[in-house]
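Quick one: examine this chain and its backbone structure tokens and tell me how the chain folds. Here goes:
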Amino acid sequence: MVPIRLAGTGSYLPEKVLSNYDISETLDTTHEWIVKRTGVHTRRVAAPEEAASDLALPASRQALEAAGISDRDLDYIIVATITPDTHCPSAANWLQAKMDAPQAVSFDVTAACSGFVFGLDVASRYIQAGMAQHVLVAASEVMSRVQDWTDRGNCILWGDGAGAAVLSAAEGMPKLIDTYLASDGANGQNLLMPGGGSKTTPISYESVDQKLHTLKMIEASASVRVAVKFFAESVTIILDKHGLKLDDVDHIIPHQANLRMLQSVAKRLGVDFEKFVITVDKYGNISSASSAIALAEAIHSGRIRPGDLVCITVFGGGLTWGSALLQF
């Protein structure tokens, strides 16, 4: 097996902070109501001129600097997103155009909130196959653009931002030990964005009036139960594969879906919630980017230290779920 080093990570959050108090000025809700149900206090919102690739660029620059390599060293640029700049070209194409990396192959991975781990898995496959030396995986979302801002049960959750990681074929720590992926397309209708694809085109007055171009969360309570189950299973499955126990894990980095949901995951696993790296309170749910940002922040803040074992666990629309195991 080719060793895969997590050579560098980075993150970027837009400057604009949108608080619960700001939202309550235009929506029938309160700061207390939002915090009780989601744990979110604030979230970031991209500037009007910022698209997914614009958020991904500074996060990628930080990851490349940490890795000690340049744009020209990259073999692949993979962007995980459900809010690309355009459907064609891909967000990865736009990101490549902003970088000095004409030699790299660029494409998007679409796996909703699980996108970052799916991207890490794809990158690791290219490295294991001997097809790449350095791969950039960026997860970037502008979730504020796909919200129905009159739906207080949904729009309060989301934020914008980007995280990035460089994987390299190299010895040394930190290293990517393994990834685990799963999906269930038959039940993907519970979390979907109907408009924007070939199912709802061309864009029409009717589709806009029906708000088909915004994110829909159907049967939320049922979705939460399913999410908790697969968040937890993703951790235990990858640990069991490597003969490890929950006590061996120093940090669990989940997709930042909802604070109450993540507390339920900790309870289901039977682990202290202090092991969970949490950013949902200050950034909200940033879909594929949330776990990437949480990983980068935990590394750059010094929370993750040499010798630590880290498990990323994700769940998203599709349905998709999975995990990644990292040794520092």
About this structure: The radius of gyration is 19 Å. The mean pLDDT is 95. The chain is about 30% helix and 25% strand.
